[in-house]
Design goal:
mainly beta; Immunoglobulin-like; four-stranded antiparallel beta sheet; 2 helices; disordered N terminus
Length: about 375
């Protein structure tokens, strides 16, 4: 082949080679998807570009599982990036809630709180999915777009201390104390700053906000001691007590006071179990009866101050006795059966038979025995 023919052949081959598409290099995420079925696609995120330093804020990141493996709490999580696993925002990862799974093709929104760094500056906010098992842990899928967030000086606080009871009775009024320090650059005033209840519901203890005193100012660096009175709910249960500072009309800021579970429960309480009483009697005759109660309060019933007391009306003596003394101690959770003898009234008629526990000096408490209408007849 001559020189000209050789040049034509080379030109021909080069022209055809230029028609073939070049294979793009595979990204790490693509390679991982091919290997174990994990991949993720960024959808959206809700995060601001400015926050006050030291504040806690809610953010969200939405991703779609575009792989072939289901995400679970045990095997997958969202991790902080830029740099990897940093704790700039008060956490290094976000797990799926217990029982939540994200199947291939499904979209999921991670809702979580971040704590803004206490030092005013600019910080990276970026995240990526990571598999933790099986096999070697590895990140996968698209990283969220990096957001440079400015931590502003301004409203900031430190929690110092609190004094809160852990037990109260239903409806009881009680005093609490919380101490915060102003760590921002703004002065707290009566008009613009207050303490906000984060209990659920907010007014479970009767108040949902506590203002400064009229004319009071808390300058940067100063401490504020909040002393106030709350009222326990009327129903028994355990309720969390927690508070956070708020600039009115803007946002909450600073740390939330550590949650204190307050047990709301009667010291003296009872539930009715059973009773045995005839529904028909003859006048002036005696009959054996029994009434059984369970101690559902916090205090042990002891002989002396505790007794069974007649009801309907309270303290009546129609059955020959007004009260039945407790002969033994009954601890919380235990039950006791009062066995006693009653004497039917001297006149025929319909009479109410009902009883309730009483603590001397404190009054009646707990459940009533079901009212029994007893028919008393002539002999």
């Amino acid at each position: 082949m001559g020189r000209i023919g050789l040049l034509l052949l080379v030109s021909f081959l080069g022209a055809h080679a230029s028609l073939q598409p070049m294979a793009a290099p595979l990204s790490a995420a693509t390679l991982l998807t091919q290997a174990d079925g994990n991949n993720a696609e960024f959808v959206s995120q809700t995060v601001q570009e400015q926050y006050y330093a030291g504040n806690v804020h809610a953010v969200s990141i939405t991703l779609t599982n575009v792989g072939t493996t289901t995400w679970t709490q045990a095997t997958h999580r969202l991790v902080s990036m830029n740099p990897y696993a940093n704790d700039t925002w008060g956490r290094t990862d976000v797990k799926l809630p217990t029982g939540v799974t994200v199947a291939p093709g499904a979209t999921y929104t991670f809702n979580f709180n971040i704590t803004v760094p206490s030092r005013p500056s600019r910080y990276n906010f970026q995240w990526q999915m990571r598999k933790t098992s099986p096999g070697s842990p590895a990140n996968f899928g698209a990283m969220t777009p990096n957001v440079q967030i400015t931590a502003l000086s301004g409203d900031a606080a430190d929690f110092i201390s609190q004094s809160v009871p852990t037990f109260v009775e239903p409806g009881q009024k009680f005093d609490v104390q919380l101490v915060f320090q102003n760590r921002g650059s703004s002065t707290w005033t009566y008009d613009n700053f207050r303490l906000i209840s984060l209990s659920n519901p907010a007014k479970v203890f009767g108040r949902d906000s506590i203002a400064l005193n009229v004319g009071e100012n808390i300058a940067p660096g100063q401490f504020k001691t909040y002393n106030f009175r709350l009222e326990a709910p009327k129903t028994e249960g355990t309720f969390n007590h927690l508070w956070q500072l708020r600039r009115s009309g803007v946002a909450n800021f600073g740390p939330v006071s550590p949650a204190v579970p307050i047990l709301v429960r009667y010291r003296n309480n009872s539930t009715f179990d059973s009773q045995s009483v005839p529904t028909a009697m003859f006048v002036d005759r005696t009959y054996d009866v029994s009434v059984r109660f369970t101690n559902t309060g916090l205090d042990t019933w002891t002989p002396g101050p505790y007794a069974l007391y007649s009801q309907s009306p309270a303290g009546n003596n129609r059955w020959g006795k007004q009260s039945i003394l407790l002969p033994v101690s009954v601890a919380p959770g235990e039950s006791y059966t009062f066995n006693f003898t009653v004497k039917a009234p001297a006149l025929a008629g319909i009479y109410n038979f009902q009883w309730r526990l009483r603590r001397s000096g404190k009054g009646d408490f707990g459940a009533f025995s079901p009212l029994v209408a007893v028919a008393v007849e002539e002999k």
